[in-house]
Every structure is written in structure tokens, then in C-alpha cells.
């Protein structure tokens, strides 16, 4: 039996090594409150953290403003470079004239009339006729 004795002892040691630890007792409300109050950071640390956050936001805003400024300058340079081309210059003039015409027509005809087949007719024509297409049909 001397040969068999070390093996059961070995298995017993291994089993003991893999046994889970008993759960720790849950802290009471008083212990939780004390731990929370002790873990609070001092006001100086909070102020330093807020200052770091404000500095980071300021740096991000400055980077965004600088990139926006660079894009605007690039767009203006492209616009000015295109303005040297006579075809683009004439097209811009035509576009501006066309938009002015559209704005004038909208200002003159912005009323209850709509143009149908070259004739101006009231958009909402009121008649005494009552048919299935009328909103007040069947009343």
C-alpha cells in the first residue's frame, strides 16, 4: 500500500487547490458610505481635472478653427484661379442672370395663380360644381 498512498494525497492536494474561495461578505450600507466618502478626491484634484478638460477642449476648438480657415483659404484660391478662365467667368454671369430671372418671376407670380399650358389660372378655383373630385362632395 505504500505505492498507492502518494497518489490519493496528490489528488487531495490538487482538489484543495482548485476549490473556490468562499464569497466575501457583502458590505453594509454604512461601510459603502464610508468607502465612498473616503474615496472622494479633494477639490484641488477636481479643479485640476476640470482645467485639463477645458484646455483640451480649447485646443480642439483651435485646431478645428485652423482647419476651417485653411479650407476657406483653399476654396477662395480655387475660386480666384477659376475666375481667370473666361469660360467660367461667362458661365457665372449667365448663372447669376438666370437666378435673377427666376427670383423676379417668383416675386411677380407668387400669388394664388398657377401657369397651366401658358395660361394663368387660379390655383384653388372655387365653383358651384360638386363632383367626386371635390373635397366637399357628398356633404
Any overview of this molecule?
With 139 residues, this protein is mainly alpha-helical. Among the domains are: 47-84; 86-124, no CATH class. Helix content is 63%, strand content 6%. It is built from four helices and two strands; from the N terminus they run H-H-H-H-E-E. It has helices at 6-17, 29-39, 43-83, 86-108, and strands at 113-116, 119-122. It has a two-stranded antiparallel ribbon with strand order 1-2. A hairpin with a 2-residue loop joins strand 1 (113-116) and strand 2 (119-122). The longest helix is centred in the middle third of the chain and has 41 residues, at 43-83. It is elongated and about 110 Å long. The mean pLDDT is 82.
In brief:
This protein is mainly alpha-helical. The protein has helices at residues 6-17, 29-39, 43-83, 86-108, and strands at residues 113-116, 119-122.
Draw up the topology in text.
Elements: H1 6-17, H2 29-39, H3 43-83, H4 86-108, E1 113-116, E2 119-122
Antiparallel strand pairs: 1-2
Poorly predicted residue ranges: none
Total strands: the figure is: 2
- Work out the oligomeric state of the chains in this entry: single chain
Q: Write out the strand line-up for the largest beta sheet, numbering strands in chain order.
A: 1-2
Amino acid at each position: 500500500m505504500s505505492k498507492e498512498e502518494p497518489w490519493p494525497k496528490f489528488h487531495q492536494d490538487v482538489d484543495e487547490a482548485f476549490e473556490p474561495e468562499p464569497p466575501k461578505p457583502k458590505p453594509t450600507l454604512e461601510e459603502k458610505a464610508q468607502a465612498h466618502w473616503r474615496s472622494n478626491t479633494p477639490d484641488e484634484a477636481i479643479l485640476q481635472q476640470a482645467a485639463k478638460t477645458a484646455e483640451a477642449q480649447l485646443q480642439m476648438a483651435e485646431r478645428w478653427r485652423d482647419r476651417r480657415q485653411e479650407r476657406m483659404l483653399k476654396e477662395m484660391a480655387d475660386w480666384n484661379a477659376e475666375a481667370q478662365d473666361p469660360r467660367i467667368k461667362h458661365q457665372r454671369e449667365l448663372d447669376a442672370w438666370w437666378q435673377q430671372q427666376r427670383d423676379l418671376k417668383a416675386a411677380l407670380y407668387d400669388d394664388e395663380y398657377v401657369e397651366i399650358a401658358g395660361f394663368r389660372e387660379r390655383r384653388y378655383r372655387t365653383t358651384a360644381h360638386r363632383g367626386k373630385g371635390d373635397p366637399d362632395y357628398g356633404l
